[in-house]
Amino acid sequence: MVGIIIIAHGDLAQALHHAVEHVLGKQRQMEFINVAADSDPVALQHQLDRCIDQCDGGNGVILCADMFGGTPCNVALGRLDPEKIDILSGISLPSLITIASERSQIADPTALARKGAASGRRYLCMASTMLKPGA
Amino acid sequence: MVGIIIIAHGDLAQALHHAVEHVLGKQRQMEFINVAADSDPVALQHQLDRCIDQCDGGNGVILCADMFGGTPCNVALGRLDPEKIDILSGISLPSLITIASERSQIADPTALARKGAASGRRYLCMASTMLKPGA
User: Which A-chain residues 5-64 have CB contacts (< 8 A) with chain B?
Assistant: First the structure.
């Protein structure tokens, strides 16, 4: 099973982790890293390495970051490994729920990240469009 | 200026609000509603109505929910108003940052929500694709 690590600004990683478990129940091989404005980048890299060790059960890991260009994503990008670690940035709750719920069937981090991205795009939707008569 | 209300499971709304202010600085006409597992739906509707009153400066409001089908989104959908309130569900930090940063130029909630959705889809991306040589 592919591991999941959420890394984001402030308490966002923890809040997303809790929301995923609220919807799907307790998760194994899933961790979060909260990044404060004054977090030390070297300490963050060490923390991320420990999380990767904890979450990788042999099928690799997806690092889920809140936003491309932010410190959390930059720290994650340093661990990109085509063999076993991919990074998905700009995550939402629907993208995370798809990744967490389909990782028992999809053993490749990049294929799983692609599913998560597709789900996040599909379920980012406006009520005025979805609920329009005849839509 | 269009108002913004984030409504989501657990502490997710607050964490997203803080992350937006971390990136863009202090925001006016922007509130959050954390929805606990045992939150009373009627009390949530009243809380949402108070937030709408606070955030609507005359150009309407966007209600930003974490996931279509969840309680926070369902509460928001009850306030859909084609004249002044739209709902965007499946939000991410990039979508919120676009909405918050462009609302001084775009005075229509639906047009602004559409921009936020487009931004969220564009910036939900995989490192393995973005950083591929020749991509």
Answer: 8-12, 14-16, 18-19, 22-23, 37
